[in-house]
Amino acid sequence: MSDQTGTTDELLAELESRVEAYERGSATAEYSPEGRVLRANDAFAELVGLDPAEVAGAGHRSFVSPEMAESAEYTTLWEQLRSGSNRTGEFRLLWPGGHDRWIRSTFVPVKNRAGEVVKVIEHALDVTEGKRAAADAQGKIQAITRSQAVIEFDLEGNILDANDNFLDLVGYGRGEVVGRHHRMFVTAEEAKSQAYANFWQRLGAGEFFSGEFRRIGQGGREVWLQAVYNPILGVDGQPWKVVKFAVDVTEAKNRNADFEGKVTAIRRSQAVIEFDLEGTVLEANDMFLDLMGYRLDEIRGRHHRIFVDADEAGRPEYQAFWEKLGRGEFHSAEYRRITKDGSPVWIRATYNPILDADGKPVKVVKFANDVTAEKLRNVEYAGRLAAIDRSQAVIEFDLDGRILTANENFLNTVGYTLDEIAGRHHSMFCTDEYAASAEYRDLWAGLRGGEFRSGRFHRRGKDGRDVWIQSSYNPILDLSGRPVKIIKYAYDVTDQVRLEQQVSVPA
Predict the structure, then answer these.
(1) Which residues form the PAS domain (predicted)?
(2) Average of pLDDT values for 406-413?
(3) What secondary structure letter does DSSP report for 356?
(4) Alpha carbon distance 307, 368 (integer Å)
(5) What is the mean pLDDT of residues 425-431?
(6) Which end of the chain has fewer CB within 10 Å, C or N?
(7) Residue 10 scores a pLDDT above 80
(8) Has residue 398 got a pLDDT over 90?
(9) Which residues are 355's β-sheet partners?
(10) What 3-state DSSP class applies to 18?
(11) What is the pLDDT of residues 456-473, one digit of tens each?
(12) What CATH number belongs to 19-127?
């Protein structure tokens, strides 16, 4: 009898040891048949985001999201557990701070000798990261499917499915392609080739392919695809189907086919010259030759420096310019160049490194337009503005009347520094009565609408002194004809006004 008792005790001890070992590595809780916690280990308390002391006595319902707790599915779960059925499921926890946390739980009802369920044991595992990863992957796949043409094949090339983007691209309905072979999208010649057979053999072996592919759509229409053929691996690591993601590049291919014609058009409308990577002239069109006053035989084989000042050609910056072009860097700017007779010409040009199939620069092509007349006009405008700035008081405002900048003449007229007025409103120069008047509001409303205003205006300088100016308010328009700021040009006529006032006073 004692031997039997000893054997039983040893068996119980072993079972208790196994349970303890399992609980040390698992989040475990015990519930009453009604779902109230009888006991829970620390791992479970951590899993549900509570202090261990808060878990005991809590209802399982309090751990899950409100939607789950109120669902028929949740009610059925506990009814089945109370009837003695094991259950496994995934639950979204009501995690402190509002963050989602998912667990996968196995519920095991424990029965007494009479077969009645006396408690339920839950073993839980945190699967949040897996759920997030799955959701992320699913979201990415959905995004790809929405934006790209997708088609699936078995390993022999038979079509399993295709999304609407792909079907629209090739012009077929789903029922017209599912079950047929990929060869329906290639020419008969290609379908019979050994290269095509090898293509599907290699996909079946797990190789992926990407590139541009010529395909045939409904009615023999040619379609070009930028596509990736991806073998999909099963849990055993072996391919079991092929998914193709594709983008329609037919239009781009057509554009490339048309490229030569466009380049020809550019050569007819712009000055074009070609150089090797060191800057030696290879070719030039008639427009460039006419602009610079040379014949082609006078410049071919010579260096680009014949078109620049000797001082510029000797600078380190000029050498660096060609070194950068030789590395494939693009340059665009306005450049001063020298014609055959020594006169300067201004060009707006782009220096374009031309790359070979390996992406390496092989030569430089320059497209240019003569902007000499434009530069001369701009110089004239700049000179006029400089003259105005020297002779008049000038101040700039935004459309709401905030001061942007002012020149020294204006600052001297009103007695302020630029720091004292920048960002403030024009009304600082007006009396309070005038600033609050309808006339003043109408002034700025008209200016914002693009109206020009001029006249003699009474203004307040620093410390409240009276200033009279003869001025014009000029709305500055953008290329669309919309006002973007206001520039005011003014003369100080304070002394003249005072003299007039003195003369008008009776003796």
Answers:
(1) 34-84, 150-180, 272-302, 394-424
(2) 94
(3) -
(4) 13
(5) 95
(6) C
(7) no
(8) yes
(9) 361
(10) helix
(11) 999 999 989 999 999 999
(12) 3.30.450.20
Neighbour-count burial of 419, counting CB atoms closer than 10 A to its CB (0-12 exposed, 13-18 middle, 19+ buried): exposed
Superfamily of domain 148-254: PAS domain (3.30.450.20)
Taking CA atoms, 356 is separated from 230, 264, 328, 353, 362, in Å, by 29, 20, 11, 10, 6
What CATH code would you report for 392-502? 3.30.450.20
User: Per-residue pLDDT tens for 141-180?
Assistant: 677 777 889 999 999 999 999 999 999 999 999 999 999 9
- Structural tokens at position 179: 């079950």
Its pTM stands at: 0.40
Check: CB of residue 283 under 8 Å from CB of residue 263.
no
pLDDT band at residue 201 under the 50/70/90 scheme:
very high
Give the residue extent of every domain in the chain: 19-127, 148-254, 272-372, 392-502
Whole-angstrom CA distances from 381 to 373, 375, 385 are 12, 10, 6
- Amino acid at position 366, single letter: K
Please, which residues bridge with residue 275 across strands?
281, 364
Mean pLDDT of 322-343: 94
Give the residue carrying structure tokens 């050498």. Answer: 319
Helix pair angle (250-257, 259-269), 10° resolution: 50
84: left (phi over 0), alpha (psi -120 to 50) or beta: left
Distance CA 117, CA 349 (A): 88
Are the C-beta atoms of residues 269 and 291 closer than 8 Å to each other? no
Q: Report residue 190: phi and psi, to 5°.
A: -65, -40
309: amino acid identity, one letter: D
Is the CATH number 1.10.10.10 carried by domain 272-372?
Answer: no
pLDDT per residue over 72-111, tens digit each? 999 999 999 999 999 988 877 766 665 678 888 889 999 9
Task: Name the nearest CA neighbour of 329 among 303, 307, 355, 356.
Answer: 355
The Cα–Cα gap between 474 and 490 comes to: 11
Residues 74 and 183: their CA atoms lie apart, in Å, by 51
Tokens encoding 451: 């109206």
Enter the tokens of residue 120: 């339920």
